[in-house]
Amino acid sequence: MYEPDPEHPSGKSNAEVYDLTQKQRSYERDIRDAKRELSGAEQLYKDNPTLENQAEAAKAKLKLQNKQAKMRELINDNPGVLQRSPRREWAGDMPKVKVPKASGRKIDDFLESKSKQLNKAGISKKRIKSALSTELGELGLTTRDFSRLTAKDQVGLFEKVKKEIPPSNKKPAPIKPNRVKETPLKIERTPRIDVTRSEMDKEIKKAFEGASGKHISLNEHMTEYEKAGVTKKEHSILYGKKAGYIKSHNYQNINTAMREHTELTGGSKRTKELLEEIITRNTLEEDTVFYRMDGGEAFIDNVLRISMDDFKTWDTTEFNERLGGKSIPDDAFKSVSSNVDQNYFLKNNRREVHCIVKAKKGTNIFFTDNMEESEAIFAPGVNTKIGRIWVYNIWSDKPELRHHGHGNEIIMEILVG
Questions:
Q1: Which of 126, 190, 350, 366 is close enough to 316 for a disulfide, judged by CB 3.0 to 4.6 Å?
Q2: In the 8-state DSSP scheme, what is residue 360?
Q3: How far apart are CA 8 and CA 81, in angstroms?
Q4: Contact partners, residue 283, CB within 8 Å, separation at least 6
Q5: Which value, in Å, is the radius of gyration of the alpha carbons in the chain?
């Protein structure tokens, strides 16, 4: 007898059967697309067998396997309704390319298995993971691609970066700024000191050389840099023109984002995280003196929190009464010079505030190999407090222009750590 809407043998309605059939067709299209993608990736690896292309082939293979697993699940859940059809999943002949089998082991699991070896070598997991991330980046890969490499390639990369990292017997001290109670200094009233520009330069050098604490020679600076054990890959990241920090205009973007608590991305994020980690590798063995030049409205308004009019008119007593003992926190990196004669701004872009930085023993710092500026970098958030301040009124060196004042410049002690 004719039935206009016969029931399917499985007991499902025709509408349900139709929906399942369409779902299978969709899965078949996905499988064909994944096969074509894998075919292209394997052919690329055959033509250029790099680790990057190997990882891409492994990624494409995993994608195809996931699509096929979904199809098997759909067929198994609907027996009597669906039947798998290899013909509809065919996407042409696949190239006969043998791509090495991916390990499938994630980077954290791999490093966990190397714990004893790393402890014996005095290398932290965080440090070698950072080095591996850098090495993978040079190959066009990310840490997520680590699992797509063969077990042999994973071990090879691990051994390579491990050799580039010098051993360290002591665990890096965490960056934890000390909290220092603000205590205003008692200073006798002192007016501004009238000096010429050349006399001011001598005052700066005198203040720097007379400050209590160790003064680092250029040779000692380079010795401290070598202690940090910066690898070639790490060096290239720090000095990157677009996303680096040292001798790169990008340092302003990184510091601004840190001060405004906005998220960094891409290369800048990697540079920031690497620099933070490198700073933890070294601490000052004794109280040490550095020099830094600051100034401009941004520094005077936002850091010292006084107006430019106040800066231009206050005398030494007013500066010390208002600012002496005040903490000036900063969430960004802080660069200083270990040698007052090797400071870029003092030579090329003079500003109003000359900081004699006195850093305490045990403070984390990274001595860079940027010897043009004898640059060293403190960690973000390190405790910073204003000490004593001397105020100068700068006059022209030329006698005929002696009546033309150049405004205030100050020498300010900065206590760090």
A1: 190
A2: P
A3: 8
A4: 173, 361, 362, 363, 364, 365
A5: 32
